[in-house]
Amino acid sequence: MRLDWQTFTLELAHPFRIAHGTSLTRTAVFVDLDGGLGEAAVVPYHGESVEAVTAYLEAARGRLADAPSTLQGRLARLPREGSRAARAALEMALFDLWGRALDAPLWRLFGLDPQRAPPTSFTLAVGSPEELAELAQRSGLPVLKLKVGTGDDLAALEAVRAARPDARLRADANGGWNLAQARDLIPELVRLGVEFLEQPLPPEDRAAYAELRGRGLPLFADEPIKTVRDVVEWAPYVDGVVVKLAKSGGIAPARAQIETARALGLEVMLGCMVETRLAVGAAAHLAPLVEHADLDGPLLIQNDPFQGLAYDGARLVLPQGPGLGVRRRV
Predict the structure, then answer these.
(1) Pfam families given for it (predicted)?
(2) CATH superfamily for domain 108-328
(3) What is the pLDDT of residue 23?
(4) Does the annotation count 247 as an active-site position?
């Protein structure tokens, strides 16, 4: 099989500041496997690097050279160790080839109804209250996710709520709070009508999550959710999990996590990194399976080179073409 890849710099529409740092650009590696496409998000705080992605792709090239021609046979040949983002990119490409061979989009092959995909939230990165209020108003989108954990979070939330009293609000601390901060702020988030809180604390202290749970605001785990085992282990401490292809290693592992969460009574938000319509389009095929979506990556990028996934306001318009249904712009 022919396997090629290229590194690409994503230019962000606005500085993207979260508890892990501030970005003006992000790096992606685009994969082409015999015409099947995939994307690896290079996210340093998830332990990813261009070198790690490239090393995984080099290892996979040899393993796929004499792989069986079936989707399952090829998936089984992907290396088990190494970059999850690179595995996700190759898995996207293999599913893309499978769907193209059957001349159908993945959501149809999975037996899903694209109309059941939930609306996506739109992320407001850390900024001054005035900046966030302006961006919230300008977006006009009905579901807003505010990044917190680095500044005067309460002032920022109050400013956004005042600017958009009609919006559904969510908050994501990316592990940037300590237990005392979380205890103080959760009642304020409840007062402001925040729907749920992602990753308030670093993932190391599950006992602290147990103390916060049941205080009137559902808690979701994000950063530590990479495998089915992680979903099982976190189920006693949170109300929901955030599933992302780049963390999970691809579409099939992400779907397994969603099904496990369902069995354990957890809600699921399907999320993304700052990724193009290629990776986010791949994830969107699973959106009808979940209650919440945070698939706004392409809305944060100025130079997305792909098309196929579309947005009607916050509504996800799933690709209609075969496979992923995502192609390079002409």
Answers:
(1) MR_MLE_C, MR_MLE_N
(2) Enolase-like C-terminal domain (3.20.20.120)
(3) 77
(4) no
- 222 has binding-site annotation: yes
CA atoms within 13 A on the CB side of 33: 32
The catalytic residue among 145, 147, 226, 247 is: 147
Of 145, 226, 244, 247, which is the active-site residue? 244
pLDDT tops 70 at residue 20: no
45 pLDDT band (50/70/90 cuts)? Answer: confident
226 has catalytic annotation: no
Of 200, 154, 209, the closest CA to residue 177 belongs to 200
Indicate the CATH number for domain 3-103.
3.30.390.10
> Is 58 labeled as ligand-binding?
no
Rounded distance, CA 17 to CA 267, Å? 27
Distance between CA atoms of residues 21 and 35, nearest Å: 35
Mean pLDDT, the chain, as a whole number?
Answer: 95
pLDDT, tens digit, 9 for 90 and up, residues 128-138: 899 899 999 99
**∠ CA(262), CA(78), CA(229), 5° rounding?**
30
Q: Per the annotation, does 184 bind a ligand?
A: no
* Residue 213: predicted pLDDT: 93
- CA–CA separation, 129 vs 142, rounded Å? 19
